[in-house]
Amino acid sequence: MPEITKLIYKYLRHDKKFPHVWCPGCGTGIILGALIRAIDRTGYEKDNIVLVSGIGCSGRMPVYVDFNTLHTTHGRALTFATGIKLAKPHLKVIVIMGDGDAIAIGGNHFIHAARRNIDLTAIIVNNSIYGMTGGQYSPTTPYGMKATTALYNNIEQAFKISELAVTAGAVFVGRGTVYHAKLLDRLIEKAILKKGFGVVEVISHCHVQYGKHNRLGSAVDMMKWQRDNAVMVQQAKQLKPKELEEKIIIGVLADKELPIYQDEYEKLRERAKA
Amino acid sequence: MQGNEALVEGALIAGCRFFAGYPITPATEIAEIMSVKLPQVDGTFIQMEDEIASMGTIIGASLAGVKSMTATSGPGFSLMQENLGFACMAEVPCVVVDVMRVGPSTGIPTFASQGDVMQARWGTHGDHPIIVLAPSSVRECFDLTVKAFNFSEKYRTPVIVVFDEIVGHMREKVTLPRTGKVEVIDRIKPTVPPEWYIPYEDTTQGVPAMAVFGDGYRFHVTGLTHDIRGFPTLRPDEVGPFMNRIHRKITLGFPEIQMGEFFHLDDAEIAVIAYGSVARSARRAVIDAREKGMKVGLLKLMTLWPFMRAAIEKIIQHANVLIVPELNMGQISREVKRVNEGKAKVSTINRVDGLTITPQEILKRIREVS
């Protein structure tokens, strides 16, 4: 049996919940693949993994995988995950969110989870659009682009998710694309193994909504754009700010140590009992 | 001790080991005391970034097997409504406390109100069953919080405890029972192996066994309508039975869930129906009226929702006037009128200016209607 088939049998609810809801060519399936491969390499038992999601295309991911799975309300995945992690610290809690989920409606939870340094892994699918609701502009839609609620072009500036995560205090921040699949595997693996709040932002494509409204071509065309516009973080250091405009910096953007909430709370408990 | 303090004692004895909240007057004492006491008993307190987060976090903790609660007041309670609906839909036990202050909006943070009674019933969208308890004394803050946890575990549902600021901040001398002297109910866990476990299976009581994340059952939880396996479904033949079951499980529990105190009601021609701090004024008024020879009784509602229709139907067999005093523009009195179906005269006393309704006001009304 090929390796990929073994992983499908081991980790997917392959006999229960397929076919999936994602459009043909969607990047979310590649991210699911990367997540499964990364989890397999970390060696975590399925019973000890909780996959939590919000609402949107990415929100459907948990239902397909054979872990403890939770599909929460829009933007609130990190809050539910916080409760699970603090109640059962031995569980590995991974949170999958979209750009609207994590940065618009759930932006407050995102920065505070990072600030607290709760031991969670947040994977953010950034496709620059609200896909499931039909292509409205999101906080990561670039200035000047089109969406169904920005037919006269988007007049807002886009959030830079990874940079926001670094500033808010996340101890691990990585950015990848669905084109750079092997890098994505490694980033997710590192984020899972890192103790503390880890973030992986994945630049994905929504050719059905974002691509269509902005005439960016097929899924393949949009992935080629990722290939041509991504710059590894080491390489980016050699380039001038002018040269980095319009580019996506990928790789590990932050990897540091800060006190972890659960460890600090354990010490607090000892003080409370003394 | 204060009502808010007694509530914490009740929560802890009922097994609450997780609290997430956001500071708000007049519920802050609950969070402050929880932050001191929970870590002493290996529990967890966390102050979240807002009430939306607080509600999500307690649901997460409950799914991981820990009894959890949050406490707030009107503005925060409004923010909790969406996730409260999630807890109804996914059948996650948890307790939400709303110490009511004058609204709408910021209103009067430090004055009493009973304006959230309908929000507690219908605040979240969609049809859903809910249990709402309303203590009127410091001791009842303890007792009804224990009940709230027990009901939430037994029926796999969020339970809301609402009381006005007066009850929350009132100090009374109480003797509280010790651990072991209080009935504590825990959720039913599955006894079958994981491969046989059906997370949302119908049972005679309508309450499925609840596995804990991490115990090997690896099930799915969603706020979408779901089939018995917990997976999203749009099929009317699966959605219908599910929605009926979550209502049926509460309906079957009416006899124990619906709690009230029946005071001098046996021969009452005039019945006062009240709850929270107003029930205390009503009790005084009834005692005074009885001394004057008037046949007056009191139904003190300790459970607001599901509404105690049967009790009121019994009262109106001989009472011809129902007086409903409350600190709002008439929220429970609407329910009383609905159940009454025009049989008795319903007389309302309403205050929304932050002051309470005095025994004298109720006694005056008793005289007027007799």
Provide a descriptive summary of the structure in words.
The complex is a heterodimer of chains A (274) and B (370). Chain A has helices at residues 3-11, 28-42, 77-87, 99-105, 107-116, 161-168, 181-193, 207-213, 219-229, 233-236, 241-244, 261-273; strands at 49-53, 68-71, 92-98, 121-126, 129-130, 136-137, 172-177, 198-203, 230-232, 248-255. With 274 residues, chain A is of the alpha/beta class. Chain A has an 8-stranded mixed β-sheet with strand order 2-1-3-4-8-7-10-9, sandwiched between helices. A two-stranded antiparallel ribbon of chain A has the order 5-6. In chain A, helix 7 links the parallel strand 7 and strand 8 (198-203). By secondary structure, chain B is α/β, with parallel strands linked by helices. Chain B has 2 domains: 3-169, 3-Layer(aba) Sandwich (Rossmann fold); 259-369, Rossmann fold. In chain B, helix 12 (332-340) links the parallel strand 13 (321-326) and strand 14 (345-350). The longest helix of chain B has 18 residues, at 138-155. The radius of gyration of chain B is 21 Å and the shape is globular. The model of chain B has no long low-confidence stretch (mean pLDDT 97). At the A-B interface, strand 2, helix 3, helix 5 and helix 12 of A face helix 2, helix 3, helix 4 and strand 8 of B.
Instruction: Report how far the terminal alpha carbons of chain B are from each other.
Output: 39 Å
Note poorly predicted spans of chain B. none
Question: Roughly what fraction of the amino acids of chain A lie in strands?
Answer: 15-25%
Predict the CATH topology of chain A. Rossmann fold
Total number of helical segments of chain A? 12
Biggest interface, chains and residues, is: A-B, 39 and 46 residues
Q: Provide the low-confidence segments of chain A as ranges.
A: none
Question: Helical percent range of chain A?
Answer: 40-55%
Q: What would CATH call the class of the largest domain in chain B?
A: Alpha Beta
- Name the average pLDDT of chain B: 97
Q: For the record, what is the CATH homologous superfamily label of the largest domain in chain B? A: Thiamin diphosphate (ThDP)-binding fold, Pyr/PP domains
SSE arrangement of chain B, N to C = HEHEHEHEEHEHEHEHHEEHEEHEHEH
What class do helices, strands and sheet pairing of chain A give?
alpha/beta
Proportion of residues in helical segments of chain B: 25-40%
Count of separate structural domains of chain A? 1
* Number of DSSP-assigned strands of chain A: 10
Rg from alpha-carbon coordinates of chain B: 21 Å
CATH architecture of chain A: 3-Layer(aba) Sandwich
Element order of chain A: H for helix, E for strand: HHEEHEHHEEEHEHEHHEHHEH
Beta strand % of chain B: 15-25%
The CATH superfamily of chain A bears the name Thiamin diphosphate (ThDP)-binding fold, Pyr/PP domains
